[in-house]
Write a structure and sequence with these properties.
151 residues; two-stranded antiparallel sheet; 4-stranded antiparallel beta sheet; single chain; alpha+beta; elongated
Length: 151
């Protein structure tokens, strides 16, 4: 199964109670189709006493089964909690998006999009200098007095 097909047939289940385990989650989502895999990510901290991080993934054999599960289980109650069921999103790499350890301007995509050529930089500097040296057309009007002239 390709990664794209696999992603389309995987649902995210959020808001899970700590008492929920992989078997209970699989049993709850079994009516919608054949389940290939159930995953409950473990907490990052080794000192954590929680059995999982409060969410999980259910992978179905068919993408249509995943859609059926989303339609029927989203915002339903499971072990006393309202759960969120949605299509799973691809996992972000650690060097992209919020929480990355790399500044946005150090990534290749940002540099390619926002890079300015030396020629453009010189052109902008020349425009700025020309603005400063141009004669102000209102300069000669400073001595004029508005209103009728007294004779």
């Amino acid at each position: 199964m390709s990664d794209v097909t696999r992603l389309k047939s995987t649902v995210y289940v959020g808001g899970l109670e700590n008492a929920v385990n992989e078997k209970l989650l699989a049993d709850a989502f079994l009516p919608f189709g054949e389940i290939v895999d159930v995953t409950l990510p473990k907490p990052d901290l080794p000192s954590s006493t929680d059995p999982h991080r409060g969410f999980g993934y259910v992978e179905y054999e068919l993408a249509g089964d995943a859609k059926e599960a989303i339609d029927n289980m989203n915002q339903s109650e499971f072990f006393g909690r309202v759960i969120k069921v949605a299509a799973a999103k691809p996992q972000k790499e650690s060097n992209e998006g919020l929480g990355s350890k790399t500044a946005i301007w150090e990534t290749e995509g940002w540099i390619a999009k926002h890079a300015v050529s030396e020629e453009d930089r010189m052109s902008a500097q020349n425009r700025e200098q020309n603005k400063a040296t141009e004669d102000d057309p209102m300069q000669s009007l400073e001595s004029d007095v508005a209103g009728p002239r007294l004779e």
